[in-house]
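Students often ask what a holo structure prediction actually looks like on paper. The answer is less mysterious than it sounds. You provide the chain, you provide the ligand, and the output is a string of discrete structure tokens encoding the 3D arrangement of the protein together with beta-D-fucopyranose.
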Amino acid sequence: MTLGFPDGFRWGTATAAYQIEGSTTADGRGPSIWDTFTTRSGLATGDPACDHYRRYREDVRLLSELGVPYYRFSVAWSRVMPDGRTVEPRGLAFYDRLVDTLLEHGITPMVTLYHWDLPEALQAEGGWPNRELADLFADYALTVHKALGDRVRQWTTINEPFCAAFIGYGNGDHAPGIQDEGAALVAGHNLLLAHGKAAQALRSNGGEQEVSIVLNFTPVLTDVDDAAHREAARKFDFLHNRFFLDPLLGRGYPPELLADLAHLGTLEPAIADGDLEIIAQPLDVLGVNYYAPARAVPLEDPEADSNCPLPGLRGMDVQPPRGELTSLGWEQRPECFTELLVWLQEHCDGLPLVIAENGAAFEDEVIEGRVHDEKRVRYFADHLAAVHAAIERGADVRGYMAWSLLDNFEWAMGYTQRFGLVHVDFETQERVLKDSALFYADVVARNGL
Ligand code: FCB
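The corresponding structure tokens follow.
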């Protein structure tokens, strides 16, 4: 049976600047929080990653060989404005060349302005808990739009504000590695504000464009369907998913969520008059990242802190993932993807959706020049079928970006987790198409499974 996708469905692959570019000091680039965090923590750094800054032409040729027509990449703020404010023309010129090269190969560029790599100079001013960053981000967005807006139509302001705020400033597993739950909530609000101001800035520069934000969604499962379990799941869902989604839709923060977080005492004072209107700029499309669900259980003591490292959560815990896991330990549940998309369609009143990331890390081996990554092929097949099922049930999904084009620097996990359709040998920088790349190219060519 063939599962056909709608005409004009946008097939793509996705990457992010810090995960692939390397060349972290080239052409005047300033340090980002990921340079300082990894160096300070003794972790692997984003140098050389995939050496994409120097090899981008080769990588664009790969994309064109695969026949995948859309490419989602991010711009590094610290290349374009090393101190967060002053333009470095050589950094901007790189993205200019990249966009031209993509277009020469018939590939449509999709730009993400912020994929977690804040200029260190702005962290020195407090980072995202400092609301002044929202204005600086809007200036940066306008600068990039002035340089690329004549050729780029699809603009995403921020990738996964949840991770940038809650993992960066809450449990500190990500850069800048700060552990301050109250500050993490403020960072989350300021990232939403930055999105709203950047959306206004992008639109102020004219031209036809599609403005989006990319959120990572984690559906919540429970073993028991009773009031206590439902409440545990609600708490997780509201903090993980609705904290970001509802204000973007113009509904503000849900009152139950504000009550859940009241004991930290930081979020409500951070919401200034007019902020919620700025955050609620109309979205042309919503970017959806889906990898895995979470499992929630109630704690007997409603005041007890959660073991789940989200700022302010109390009275609930998360349970270990089950069944077949990816090498990152993520549970594989394609059916949750379908339910998520159907729910989003209703909750967002029909806003068009684009899958901005979906994929899986497994241990791969190059044998005689081939990578037989059956598990990843199956992951993509199952998750694409799940997207198809959601479309059949009425979800307006316009596209799918596979994460990721290349094996790359997987944040705090360094080079241990391979998500690529293309295998990268980080010593020699040799690229080898995995079986999953050939599978995906075939799906794209047939516009179906
Ligand atoms: C997402 C990130 C992306 C990548 C994948 C595996 O949360 O946006 O950069 O690390 O997870």
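The chain has a mean pLDDT of 98.
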